[in-house]
Structures are given as structure tokens and as C-alpha cells.
Design brief:
Elements lengths: L34 H14 L19 E4 L6 H11 L9 H14 L13 E4 L29 H12 L8 H15 L3 H12 L11 E2 L4 E2 L5 H4 L14 H14 L14 H9 L35 H16 L11
Helix pairs in contact: 2-3, 4-6, 5-8, 6-10, 9-10
């Protein structure tokens, strides 16, 4: 029951860090002499968190009067496009951190008026401008440890807490619904046997962390309910009208998650400790049939390609295993929760 736009060839705009390189170098007007030095100053500011105003009334114009106009090709993501610009300006591809690329990609999304920064399509024209720093939410903070205690309670579900803080900041969840969402997830976790923090990791991969409008055209919502016979949307009662899921709030979609977990018999995969492991939880969402393969390094029967972080060695043609899923979910969580942007940084 896939969700990430990578899965159907419609690229995920942000991805979980370094994305697959675009096919070919972007070109366009607007690059001018002297822009390189200013561009490098802005990259330094980006890293140091120097406050700058977004281009607009009373703000200095972005360098590049300015950016480079690019045409999206199949396989591109916003992250890969900004990484290409980094390289075009003389930077080493690996020198730009996942967090820096993520912030820059969000800026590009806002400047291009993208209502869903997790969805760009081949043939689309975008302007990739130099990076500027933006105000971050006061609640932004480094990600906490990912090795949550087995009882899921002693640390207060810190990943879920941060994921929901981020979701409120990005406008995915109204503040008034936050506590109800917490209680609903905890109820689902108790009923089906998973850890709330593990659920946070899955939705961070699937919908940028509780974005109820996340869609790749075929799969929709916080865990990407997919259209088609015997797929997630049908299991949740939306087989004939899957896109209607996008009209539902996070709270309403959590009711669909409950129905889906019942239908896929998630509880049957509890271990001796009574808990569903993270890899079984995620496979229930991604491809339930793949749960039958229990070996951690065995290739799983999952249609691809998926998000790069899920593949062995992050290679597009590489297999997906239980081990690579666990590693990918943790890498993605660290990338998205390291720091995040408030809602006014993104076009809604």
C-alpha cells in the first residue's frame, strides 16, 4: 500500500535526504556574473542560521534575480534539483547535508507556489533560486534518540511528540486537534500492538509526517491509501472514490487506518513481547504480502522503485529488505525531524 510519490514514477519532491540526481543538468537564464560569490555567502548563512527575510515587500531580492529555470524530468525531486544547483555552483554533492537540502527545497516550493511540495511532475517548469535562510519554528529542536524503550512509555513517545509538533507547525493538524490525534494514535497502538513512535516513523516516510493531503496520484493520505482492487483505499471503504480521502482530516484518516490494520490483520504479527515490530508495521502499509519473508536481509517482493532510503545502499535498482527498511525509516526520521520549517515557509 505504497505512498511515497517515488513509487509510481511521480517523484517525491522532498524525499528522505539526498535524492536521485536529475537526468541532465538544469539550464536557464538568470545566472549572472558575481552571483557565485553571493550564492556562496547565502549558503554560509543557510548553515549558520543567519536570519534573512524572504524575498518580498521590503526584502532584498534573491540572488539570480535569479534562479535557474528548470524543466522537471522523470526521477527528479526538489531535493535533487537543489543538489544539482549546488554542484553547478562548484560544491561537492555530498557536502550539502540532507537537512540543508531539505530547507532549500522547501524554499523552492514556496517560491514556486507549490501547494504540495511532495509532488512535482515531469514537464513542470520551476525556478530554483539560491538558498535563503528563514525563520524556524520556536518548537524546532534536534531529534531525540530513535531507540525507544520497549514499553513505549518511559520517554513519553518523543518521536510522535516531535512529529505532531512539526505537523501542527506545517499546518497539517490544527492545534485544537493535536491532543485528540495523540489519544487516537495511542489507542490504535494499544489495540494493534505497535509503538506510537514507530507509527511516527512510518508517517514521516509516507506523508511527510501526517500530511492529510499527501498524494502521488494513486495513493492518498497519511499512510497513502492506494487505489485499485484489494488495495488500501478499498480496505478503508474508499475503493470507488479514493481521492475523497484527501478531504478528510488527520483524525478522520486515523479511523481509516484502524480499519485498514484490522483488514490486514496487523495484530497477528505481534512478537513474543506482544509488540509489532517496526518493519512489520511498515510492510503492512507498504506491501502486506511481503511480511511473510522473515529473514532480515532477504530481498522482499515489493514493486519499485520506492523512496531511495528504503533500498539497500540507497541504490535505485537495489533490493529492499527488512534491514534496509529499518535503516531507511530511521534516516528519514532524522532528516525530517532534525529541524523543520513553520507553516509560513511553505505554500499551503
Amino acid at each position: 500500500m505504497p505512498i511515497n510519490p517515488d513509487r509510481t514514477g511521480q517523484p517525491s519532491a522532498l524525499g528522505g535526504g539526498a535524492a536521485a540526481p536529475a537526468q541532465g543538468k538544469p539550464t536557464g537564464a538568470g545566472l549572472r556574473a558575481g552571483a557565485g560569490a553571493a550564492f556562496n555567502r547565502q549558503l554560509t548563512d543557510l548553515r549558520q542560521g543567519v536570519p534573512m527575510r524572504l524575498a518580498g515587500a521590503g526584502a532584498e531580492p534573491a540572488v539570480g534575480a535569479g534562479g535557474v529555470e528548470v524543466t522537471v524530468r522523470k526521477g527528479d525531486t526538489l531535493t535533487s534539483l537543489v543538489r544539482d544547483q549546488w554542484v553547478a555552483r562548484g560544491g561537492a554533492r555530498d557536502a550539502l547535508t540532507a537537512h540543508e537540502a531539505h530547507r532549500w527545497a522547501l524554499q523552492v516550493a514556496r517560491q514556486n507556489g507549490l501547494s504540495n511540495p511532495d509532488l512535482i511532475v515531469a514537464g513542470q517548469s520551476l525556478v530554483v533560486g539560491p538558498p535563503t535562510t528563514v525563520r524556524e519554528a520556536k518548537i524546532a529542536r534536534p531529534i531525540v534518540r530513535l531507540d525507544t524503550p520497549a514499553d513505549g512509555r518511559s520517554l513519553g513517545n518523543p518521536l510522535l511528540t516531535q512529529t505532531l509538533d512539526r505537523a501542527v507547525g506545517l499546518g497539517y493538524i490544527p492545534q485544537r486537534d493535536r491532543q485528540s490525534v495523540v489519544e487516537r494514535i495511542e489507542t490504535l497502538a494499544s489495540k494493534h500492538g505497535f509503538l506510537p513512535d514507530d507509527f511516527a516513523k512510518t508517517v514521516l516516510m509516507e506523508s511527510d509526517g501526517m500530511n492529510p493531503r499527501a498524494s502521488n496520484g494513486n495513493c492518498h493520505g497519511i499512510i497513502q491509501f492506494c487505489s485499485g482492487p484489494d488495495r488500501g483505499a478499498a480496505s478503508a471503504g474508499y475503493g470507488q472514490r479514493p481521492r475523497e480521502i484527501l478531504k478528510l482530516s488527520v483524525l478522520q484518516q486515523l479511523d481509516l487506518v484502524d480499519r485498514y490494520f484490522d483488514d490486514t490483520r496487523l495484530k497477528d504479527f505481534r512478537g513474543r513481547d506482544g509488540r509489532v515490530r517496526l518493519d512489520d508495521l511498515y510492510l503492512t502499509i507498504l506491501t502486506p504480502a511481503a511480511r511473510q519473508e522473515r529473514q532480515p536481509k532477504a530481498p522482499l517482493p515489493i514493486a519499485g522503485p520506492q523512496a531511495l532510503d528504503l533500498h539497500v545502499r540507497r541504490e535505485r535498482d537495489g533490493p529492499i529488505t527488512r534491514s534496509s527498511i529499518l535503516a531507511g525509516l530511521n534516516v528519514n526520521a532524522r532528516s525530517r525531524l532534525g529541524q523543520f520549517m513553520v507553516a509560513d515557509v511553505m505554500a499551503r
